[in-house]
Each structure stands twice: as structure tokens, then as C-alpha cells.
Amino acid sequence: MKKPEMILFDYGGTLAQETSPDFLRGWRAVFQYIDKNPDGATPEQACQVADSLWQRFSASRSLSAARKGGFETHEWQQLRTVLDVLGLEPALPLSGIECVLMENSSLCKPMPDIGELLAFLDRLGIPTGVVSNIGWSGQALTYRLEKLFPLHKFRFVLASSEYGIRKPDPMLFQIALKKARLLASAVWFCGDDWEKDVCGSHDAGMFPVWYCEGAFGGKKQRDAPFPYLAVQVWRELPAFLGACGG
Q1: 47 φ/ψ angles, rounded to the nearest 5 degrees
Q2: Coil, helix or strand for 198?
Q3: How far apart are CA 18 and CA 11, in angstroms?
Q4: How far is residue 181's CA from residue 141's CA, in Å, rounded to a whole number?
């Protein structure tokens, strides 16, 4: 097998591990950037409005089914609704408020050994990109990745929120290939989700790498009618790349 000309990564559970979100903490941070609050709204109220919107979305059979079927929402829709319902005027643009909310609601850290893997890919001259199912904007996700990996530059970051579709929809992978200007056969895709990342990238013609740490009780292989690589720790991937042809 030849070395890939590019490697794409999923985000959550692959590049980074996030804590359970605390949106009240996030809204308290957002309120430090509110210029006008004519009705004296509180972070608690903002959090309640946001939660009610999500509950309404989740309770709708058609909308929840749409998301399971590959439809994605965008965080800016909810943010704009909360701000306008409460009459809040922020000092930052919506993109800035989103970053404040994201960074303070959901804490994260790099997955073990991923920093060393990215540095190894840099030394090999293999570029990288990110394709993530996420409601946060691509701008917010890029900001987070730059904080997590300040020494590494992803060529592009695709957030499903920007396109309204979610992996394993092949169109999202096709967009990534257009941005990479590469054939699917030249690209590897690394992710932790079997259906969305492994099967999805295979269906798009890429070579899948399954990051299966802790998956299925630590089971390292899964029957599939196509070739793929399974790694339980990221430090396994450099050895496999080293065994590939030029």
C-alpha cells in the first residue's frame, strides 16, 4: 500500500476528548460580553431558553429523524434566537459569542498521542484536514483546534453545520476531496465511529482508519467487506505508515 497523500480526521473522540457540556457556565461567560440587557435577563434565563429550543427540536419526530438521517443544525440559529428573545445586544459579533460559549461550556483535551502523530505527519510532509459532525460553526471548531494543536496546521476544517448534512453522507466526504484536490484513493480517513467514519469514508472511496480505543470492549477488529486499519492507540499509526511504499 502506498503512503497517503493526505490524512483526514474526525474531531470528537478522534482528535480531542470533550467533557459533558455545562451550558450555564458558558452563558455566564457570554454575559460578560453583553452590551445591552434592557430587561435584566440572567444567564440562567438564557440557558433555559436555549435548552427549551433544543428540547423542542428533540421532541419533534420529523426534526430528530432528519438529524438521524443526516440533517445538521447550526449553532448560530439557536444563539440568535436566545439573544433576540431576551433583547440582548452583545459587544462581539455572533461568531465571537459562539466561541465564548463553546470554550466555556465544553472543555476538551487532545486524545493521547495525537500531538505526536500530527508532528510525525508534518515530518513526512503529509497534509491533514478535519471533517466533523458538529453543530458549532467551522470557525469555532477551527479556533478550538488551533488552541489544542498550536504547532500543527490543518489544511482545512469542515463542520457539518456549515453544510446541513452529516457523515456518513458521501457528499461531505466529496466536499473534502474537492478541497484537497485529490482522488479518494489517495486519502485516508481516521475516526472513532464505525458507521459515520469508517463505513462513510470507505463508501466515498477513501481508506478508513478506525480509532477503536475502548470500542466494543477493546475489540480491535470487526468484520467488514472492505479493507481498513484498526488502531487502539495513535502511536500505532506511524509504524504502519513507515511500512507503506512511497
Answers
A1: -65, -40
A2: helix
A3: 10
A4: 22
What is the C-alpha to C-alpha distance for residues 121 and 115, in angstroms, rounded to an integer? 10
Find out whether 63 and 5 touch, Cβ atoms under 8 Å. no
| Lookup: cell for 238 | 506511524
Q: Determine the pLDDT at residue 66.
A: 47
* CA distances from residue 174 to 158, 167, 188, 202 in whole angstroms, order as listed: 11, 11, 13, 12
Helices 43-59 and 75-85: angle between axes, nearest 10 degrees: 130
Q: What pLDDT, on the 0 to 100 scale, is given for residue 214?
A: 55
Q: How far is CA 96 from CA 33, 136, 143, in A?
A: 10, 12, 10
CATH 3.40.50.1000 fits 6-18+108-243, yes or no: yes
Closest listed residue to residue 128, CA positions, set 158, 103, 108, 99: 158
Side chain identity at residue 240, one-letter code = F
Q: Above 70 in pLDDT, residue 121?
A: yes
pLDDT digits (tens, 9 = 90+) for 65-111: 445 556 788 899 999 999 999 999 999 999 999 999 999 999 999 99
Q: Residue 211 and residue 245: Cα distance in Å, rounded?
A: 22
The dihedral over CA atoms of 103, 107, 110, 111, expressed in degrees to the nearest 10, equals -140
**What backbone torsions phi and psi does residue 132 show, to the nearest 5 degrees?**
-130, 140
- Name the helix (H) or strand (E) containing 9: strand 6-9
Sequence letter at residue 78: Q
Which residue from 81, 117, 108, 109 is spatially nearest to 97, judged by alpha carbons? 81
Distance separating alpha carbons of residues 134 and 148, to the nearest angstrom: 17
**Cα separation, 222 vs 205, whole angstroms:** 19
